[in-house]
Here is the input.
Amino acid sequence: MLIEGSAILLVGFFALLGFGVPLGVALGLAGTAVILVEKLGIMAVPTNVYTGIAKYPLLALPMFVLAGMVFERAGVARRLVEFAIAAVGNRRGALGIVAIVVCMILGGISGSGPADAAAVAMVMIPSMTAQGYPKAFSASLIAAAGSTAILIPPSIAFIVYSVLVPGVSVPALFAAGMIPGILAGLSLLIPLYWFAHRDGFGRAADESRPPLWQTFRQAIWGLLAPVIILGGLRTGAFTPTEAAVVAVFYGLAVGIFVYRSLTWRGIYGVLVESAEISAVVMIIVALASVFAHAGSTLGAFDAFAAALIGFTGNEWIMMTMIMIMLLIAGMLLDAVSIFLVFLPILLPIARKFGWDLTWFGVVMTMNLAIGQFTPPMAVNLMVTCKIAKVPMEATVPWVIWMVVAMCGAMVLVIAAPWLATGMPHLLGYR
Here is the structure.
C-alpha cells in the first residue's frame, strides 16, 4: 500500500507538472487519485480543501497583498527613492544602494518579492540607465533586493509557514526574519561596489542632490508604514491579521488624502488585481491540503524523511543536502508552493535533529528568496527583465554573483542560529 500509493502520489504529481498542469491542480489531482486507489475515503477531499484555507492567520495574506499594491499605486516607492537619493548622495554606486534600501523598506510593507521588485524597477531602472548602469545589472540587482520582502516582516511566506507548522507563531517568525533579511540586503552591497568600481558606472557628480528635509517630508508616510505595522504587533495593539487590515486602510488614507494619487477607478483596479493574486494562492493552498492529507495518511512523507535520515546522520551534511534541494526547487517554483510540497517531508527531519522550527523557517525562506532571482524561472527577475526590456539570459553574468553574496548571508545564519532566534527571545515571543 505504501509503495504503490507513494508512487501514484509522486509520479502522478510530476507527470501532471510535465504536461503543463498548474501546480495547485496537479497537487489536488495527485492526492485525489491516491485517496481513490487506496480507498482512504473520498469525502476527505472536500473536507481538506475547506480546512486547508479555513485558518485565521491566512486572512492576513490577501490583506497584505492588497496593502502592497495600494502603497505601490499610491506613489510611495517614488518618494522613498527621492529621499534615499538625498540621503546617499552621488557617491559611486549610489543609485544601486538606493535600490537596495528602498526594496528593503517596501518589503516591510508588502511582504511580496515580485510586487516589491516591480515597484522599485519602474522608478529606478530609467535613472540607473542614465547613470551608466547596464540594464541587465539593474534588473538583477533590483530582483535580488526585492527578494528580501519575504524575509523582512511582514512576510507572506512566513504567514504560510506558520499555518503549515504547528506551534510556530507569526509574530515569532516576523521577529526572526528581521536580522537575516537585513543581512541578505546588505550582502548585495558587495557585488554592487565591486562592479561599480571595476566597470566605472553609477556616478553622476554633476547632478544636483535633492534637498534632504523636503524629500523626507514627502517620504515620511511610507517610512511610517513598517513602524506602524511592527510597532502595533510588538505592543499587542493588533494581531498580524489585524495589522494587515490596518496597513490597507493606512495606505488608502495616504494615497487618497495625502498624495492624492489614488482615484476611485484606481482603487477598483487594485481590488480586482489583488483579489486575483490572492485567489490563486488560496487555491494552491487548498488543493495542497489534499496532497498533504494523502501523503501523511499513507505514511509516505515519514518514509521519505526516514530514507533521507538513513542516508546520513550528520546534521550539517543533511542541512547542506536540504539547502541544495531547496535552491534547485526555488529556481522552478515560488516560495509558497515549495513550502506546501516540501514541508511535509522536511519537518520530520528538522524534528529528528532538534532544529528550532522558527530558525528552520527563516533558513528555508532565505533559500527560497535566492530562488526568486535565480534563472530559469526566477519570478522577481522575470518582472524586472520585462520592465528593463532585456532578456533573462543577459542577467546571468551579474545574477550569479548576487546569488553567491546572498548564499553567504544564509550560511552565516545557518552557522549562527542566534541571528534568527535572538530577536524573538528578546521580544518575548519564545
User: Anything to note?
Assistant: The mean pLDDT is 86.
